[in-house]
Write a structure and sequence with these properties.
Length: about 400
Amino acid sequence: MIDIKAYISDWARSYKDDLTQNIMPFWMKYGLDREHGGVYTCVDRDGTLMDTTKSVWFQGRFAFVCAYAYNNVEKNEEWLQAAKTTIDFIEKYCFDKDGHMYFSVTADGRPLRKRRYVFSETFAAIAMSEYALATGDMHYAERAMQVFEDTQRFLATPGFLAPKFEPEVQLQSHSIIMILINVGSRLRAVVDNPKLTLQINDSIDKLRRYFMHPEFKALLECVGPNGEFVDTNMTRVINPGHCIETSWFLMEEARQRNWDKDLMDTALTIFNWSWDWGWDKEYGGIINFRDCRNLPPQDYSQDMKFWWPQSETIIASLYAYLGTGDAEYLYRHRQISEWTYAHFPDKEYGEWYGYLHRDGTVAQPAKGNLFKGPFHIPRMMIKSFTLCNEILEKF
């Protein structure tokens, strides 16, 4: 029989220690650009810089993490200053004249690539709002709200964002809908604006009406304009990590609404479905992609284990236990944690590997690129630290 209080206490200490002694120091040493501002993420296993290209996603993500850690773990002024210099870099270099952000820039901020997505905007917005929460400087809260409203406008303006497919292909994606729940939640912590809850409500409604498909017990990544199931390789995809991330965004909103039962039931349904699709019963860990008809997925990385789905599952299992008290979720936390911590941390050079084969062996050892860097892992540690402390308050 597990001693729940001791178990949760041990993990709370572990998350804080790992964040403050391993993850944040690694990125402050090897990622923070003290010359131009912003952060590098393309670093090798030992922190050696491999490419000075800067992911604009990660400028916002890193600034957010620094301020989020400052607000929730410890008042480390170096983190707060890193958030500020990275936001300064974002403001100076990462917006095009039309307000739409770039995807990547050079070390000194010259634009390299612009894509049809608005994820750069979502991460910049949460960075600004979290920094406002840390400092009390409402200029950043107002700027976060402006970026959020621009994001909504870009999405709603026909032709502003280049189409992904030809006009006859009518599809909608889960990704932007789920991320806007989290953006609304983060901004609402510092901005009192009804548009934020309206966006969250709209996203929740779309998830329920369009993307949750009980016939497959799955939340699909891509559906028709009215939620239709489209029977192609691409549109049969289940991304368990994305779905589990969505589930804890919904749990967070349910808690904000005094643990709203209907919303919590939706969140748990998505988590339970996605755990069943994602947990690898043979090797352990959360697998990348599944096909809702159990056909072979077409993505070449379909059976790999990436860093971020494991991180999202750790958060979701703790959130589910906090909200329900059901020991099944604590058992899941133990399963995913034991597997994750046995395979991802690099005991020699610090930080975590990002890309593993299905059996848990390392596929490539770099600590970062344009998509992996200081976000999912430190966010998991910060959020899990706070969730553990909230669970302990019940004892």
